[in-house]
Amino acid sequence: MSNPALQRTVLVTGAARRLGRDIAQALARAGWRVAVHYRDSEQDALETVAACTDLSGDSDSFQADFNDEQAVRALISRVVQRFGRLDAVVNNASLFEHDDAASFGYQAMQAHLLSNTGAPIVLAQGLQEHMRARIEAGEPDARGAVVNLLDQKLWNQNPDFLSYTLSKAALEAAGTMLALALAPLVRVVGVAPGLTLTSHLLSQERFEALHRLSPLGRSSSAADVASAVCFALDNQSMTGTTLLVDGGQHLQRFERDFSLM
Q1: Strands 186-193, 59-63: pairing kind
Q2: What is the pLDDT of residue 1?
Q3: CB 3.0–4.6 Å: which of 20, 170, 196, 216 could bond 15 by disulfide?
Q4: Crossing angle of the two packed helices 18-29 and 222-234, in degrees rounded to 10
Q5: Predicted TM-score (pTM) of this structure
Q6: Taking Cα atoms as reference points, which of 143, 149, 154, 117 lies closest to residue 249?
């Protein structure tokens, strides 16, 4: 870029590995400078930074534990100090641990709410404060955007992963309220993937079979989700809504979570 000070900067949480890395690289490919957040996976984060730097010319990593409110509140200012500006936040980091009605307890619910709901709200607050500061500094058109990664489970509920689902439902509701509260300085958009990546809970063969269970014959790929995030950040008229990127899986009824089917 001829003028790095004008290059858009995005913070992607949980960007060290898996879907977060794909989103970070897609944004770098689109010209964004990427702040790569991680909690424990430092080496993976450094690999993501290297890949993004090759694509956009600049990237850096930022460690923060989302159970620590002060660490979350400091994250925006750390990114701004490093890059000089921040234009968007992609809330991808997510705690995903199993519980159900029989095993539910306060501790599990609190852990999911802190990471999956509280941290994204705090980061959205911080982005709005940064936009106000830029306006006061003589940039009247400063505007930002937040993309919250949700889950098609919210539109196709089952009894598995109770605390996780509650935290994502709270984040979806918060997206509506924040879209109203933070306008016009910050837009808030949700992106809800379907079954996208396999895990230790699924064999590759089983994952591929479940991935085909949708009206379109395929669920979302990491590239599909990253493309939706890029679109949400670029479309200046979108706020307070959610893009479901799941091949139509939310239109079908599943009695269990994919990982337990």
Answers
A1: unpaired
A2: 43
A3: 20
A4: 50
A5: 0.95
A6: 154
Rounded to whole angstroms, the Cα distance separating 64 from 96 reads: 18
What is the rounded CA–CA span in Å between residue 141 and residue 174? 25
From residue 9, alpha-carbon distances to 82, 86, 231, 233 in Å are 10, 5, 15, 11
Residue with tokens 């996780």: 164
CB 249 within 8 A of CB 224: no
Exposure of 73 by Cβ count < 10 A (0-12 exposed, 13-18 middle, 19+ buried)? middle
**Cβ distance 231 to 225 under 8 Å?**
no
User: What residues make up the domain containing 192?
Assistant: 4-258
Instruction: Report yes or no: 126 and 75 within 8 Å, Cβ to Cβ.
Output: yes
**What pLDDT shows up at residue 4?**
66
Closest to 67 measured CA to CA, from 36, 112, 108, 106: 112
In which residue are the tokens 């992106």 written?
191
DSSP label of 35: E
Is 227 a residue whose pLDDT tops 60?
yes
Total count of domains within the chain:
1
Going from the C-alpha of 59 to that of each of 45, 65, 102, 120, 147, the distances in angstroms are 11, 20, 44, 21, 19
Rounded Cα distance, 116 and 161, in Å: 13
CATH number at residue 188: 3.40.50.720
In angstroms, the Cα distances linking 168 to 5, 152, 212 are 35, 10, 24
Q: Where are the beta strands (DSSP E) in the chain?
A: 9-12, 33-38, 59-63, 88-91, 144-149, 186-193, 241-245
Among all chains, which residue has been given the structure tokens 């534990």?
Answer: 65
